Amino acid sequence: MTSKYGLLVLNSKNLQKLKQLLTTAAASLSSRLYVRFNPDTDRTDDLVSKIYLNSANFCPKIDVRLVVAEIAGKIDNYELIGDEKYEKSSGKSEKKYKKVVLGGTFDRLHNGHKVLLNKAAELASDDIVVGVTDKEMIAKKSLFEMIEPVEIRMKNVVDFVEDISGEAKCLTEPIIDPFGPSTRIQDLEAIVVSRETLKGADAVNKIRNEHGMSQLDVIIVELVEGNDEILNETKISSSSRRRADLGRLLKPTRQVPRGNGKPYLIGLAGGIASGKSHIAKYLKEKHGFDVIDCDKLAHTCYEKGSVLNQKIAEHFGKDIVIDGVVDRKKLGGIVFSDKSKLRELSELVWPEVRKKATEIAEQSTARVVVLGKAQKILNFEVVA
After folding, report:
1. pTM value?
2. Residue range 286-303: average pLDDT?
């Protein structure tokens, strides 16, 4: 029988058995493992990173939290992992700063995030201010469509920080610029960054200086290293977790009766390099679904003598179509120099693609037909 919560108390001796202890936790717990150093053990940044990295490898399904505050009273019942008993510290630890700030996307809160948040919790006695990126700030991230809503990400940050930090409060806010609260709140004292975002901290201090605000101490934390074979990454990242979620059912399916014998249609959409072709290939090879590539289908609509070519001639002039074939160069000169003309071409092309895709799908004997790159027949994007 597994317990929901566990407590692992570390000292200089049992640190040598860390991997074994985490493996035990993975087999014994169902939810969360609190890790606490006994007072005689030095808490170093390298050691914190080591604990989180090993937890990712040896108990990946357990939410590991390295607490800064006293553990007593945080949870009602917990299973002790290992033989080391918890010793309450003799006095209240002094924090170096009152208010600390940091920022990030914090999607699918992982151990790399926890290292940063742990450092902030170690340093701040009053407030831990966290800016959580939203809107334009996440639009260029890999698989940004799969990023959790900002409200969920902020809630997860607050839950984690206040769970490990004791008396310090966690204040979160969505940010749509690179700086957020770091250049707005006067009495901040330090900023926690990874080495990759150090330039951002320098920019923050430059802006604060220009506005007559105090300079922030810059606390650099090394990111937790891991391995992601799909993305070829050596750092634990949210993008690798989003990639791992591709093809995974994120919510229950709803059965829709198809009494007319026609196949179900699935529209496969996403940004550039988001894995559309990979998923389409998987569905075809593993499940026998038919796949219609809407990009390729669009090009067939330009074939000699097609209905689309006739419409283009009527709309843009008969000199655009010669002997039933569209002069792509001449048409491109018109539509790519005028956005309104490009939109007009889109409104001619994609309804034809949609019509053709529907005809092909209705003739399919497969149970399911996948419309690959279907965002183009929904959003009227042009393939010239």
Report:
1. 0.69
2. 89
